[in-house]
Amino acid sequence: MTHLTPSVASDREHQNVTSFLKTHFDQPQNPLSVEAVAVSGNYSLASWTQRTKGGRALLKKTGDKWEIVMCGGKDLKQASALRKAGIPARDVDSLLKHLTVEEGKVPQHRRLAFDSFSNDGQANRHEQN
């Protein structure tokens, strides 16, 4: 069995999260751009844009498959929202810290789009079949 260093494993998971989101939401005339990804344990927070719109996705890994727990905007940068979604405290702290660093590398106009996801004040839970 090959053991990966944390950075290699993290890079692979970032790619897996990006691929998952693009597979589900990318459209030929409306491509999805995954701008920032944070991974901690079996959880990920990803910030995305699609033309002038944007948002964040909270994902959970089960086995080797990622699934969307919920989508939101600035609400998903709140520790309380992540804890309410059942994310362990150690992962909440790590996700928020790393996502803040990754989003800091993105131009401000795109970062503003991450907060623009409209969900009538509540994070949108996606049902996975």
Side by side, the strands of the main sheet go 1-2-3-4-5
| Count of discrete alpha- or pi-helical segments spanning 4 or more residues | 4
Order of helices and strands: HEEEEHHHE
Number of DSSP E strands: 5
Spatial separation of the terminal alpha carbons: 32 Å
Number of domain units: 1
Unreliable spans: 1-8, 121-129
Helix vs. strand class: alpha+beta
Shape: globular
Percent in strands = 25-35%
Q: What value does the Rg take, in angstroms?
A: 14 Å
Question: What's the helical proportion of residues?
Answer: 25-40%
Mind describing the biggest β-sheet?
5 strands, antiparallel
Query: How confident overall, as mean pLDDT?
Result: 86
Protein described:
This protein is an alpha+beta fold and 129 residues long. Helices cover 37% and strands 28% of the residues. It has helices at 6-25, 79-84, 89-103, 108-114, and strands at residues 33-40, 43-50, 53-62, 65-72, 124-125. A five-stranded antiparallel beta sheet has the order 1-2-3-4-5. The model is unreliable at 1-8 and 121-129 (pLDDT under 50).
Task: Provide a concise account of the structure shown.
The protein has four helices and five strands. With 129 residues, it is of the alpha+beta class.
Notable characteristics:
4 helices; 129 residues; alpha+beta; disordered N terminus; five-stranded antiparallel β-sheet; 28% strand
Topology (SSEs and partners):
Elements: H1 6-25, E1 33-40, E2 43-50, E3 53-62, E4 65-72, H2 79-84, H3 89-103, H4 108-114, E5 124-125
Antiparallel strand pairs: 1-2, 2-3, 3-4, 4-5
